[in-house]
Amino acid sequence: MLYPLTFEPIFKDKIWGGQKIKTILGKDFPQGPDGLLPNCGETWEISGVAGEVSEVKEGSLKGKSLQELLAQYKEQLVGEHVYKQYGDRFPLLVKFIDANEDLSIQVHPNDKLAHERHQSFGKTEMWYIIQADPGSSLISGFNREVSREEYIDAVQNNTLTDILNREPVEAGDVFFLPAGRVHTIGKGLLLAEIQQTSDITYRIYDFDRVDDKGQKRELHTEQAVDAIDYKHYDQYKTSYERKRNQSVNAVTSDYFVTNVLNFDQEVMHDYTHLDSFVILVCVGGAVTIQAEGGYNVPLKLGECALIPAAVKQVTLVPDGDMTLLESYVP
């Protein structure tokens, strides 16, 4: 019988990472050959990426990989239309990201380009800001209309940041980033990321930094040119109404829908109308997920659960004030 599933996090050492995965989210980095992982930039919480597949943390399915579950349970795990569309590829990837320094300026290809070049999905994503140091910001898109030629000149002349849109950021902000949007996560931000299952990133500019061996990281400036959306948009931050004890939609896309749930009272969620799994990401406080069969799954800040499509009802019991991201495939 399927039940709300939690998974072992996959830790990622990054040149720009810090310590908030441990100090704020309470996750202990695994011991490496030199002691603790020095700069944990990301944890992959629910992943079907080849070579980086999540394993179940608790219950009768403990130790099973997400890939094994999908092969065994198919539509029961992900929903009929999701399985028909994606088959044995789990469509979403959930991460927590700690930017102790600015990430590289980058862009992700859309489905068409990613399939042609990499036999992969493209990468549309969203960010929910969990914590922001004072003065933190991020880059999303351009600050004016830019031509392909202007962009190439800016990269060659090292003036790229002059034409990019920088946004001040605070906790609770949401940013939706369709494939093709140039972006970077700024120093001092801790966030949750929900994205298509893809690890394709074109790095455009990396602030000339070097690793511990004195090497600069690879850039993909030529590959990025065909992937970029050069349009200017009036609004880059996602507008949503923050309400207590209501489910508020923040993002609706072809790849995922994400609602923000800020509750301080018990609530029952009926997923009978959905033909999809649901992912719950705790971005504030703590909650217990109750499901049929006597399942009680506690989640605290920095933890996630996958509600299989076969589980049609859950009761969320907050421990005080809690905030969840609720995502599914439309």
Automatic annotation (TrEMBL):
One of its GO terms (molecular function) is isomerase activity. Keywords: Isomerase, Metal-binding, Zinc. Residues 8-119 form the Phosphomannose isomerase type I catalytic domain. SUPFAM superfamilies: RmlC-like cupins. PANTHER family: FRUCTOKINASE, TRANSCRIPTIONAL REPRESSOR MPRA. This is Class I mannose-6-phosphate isomerase.
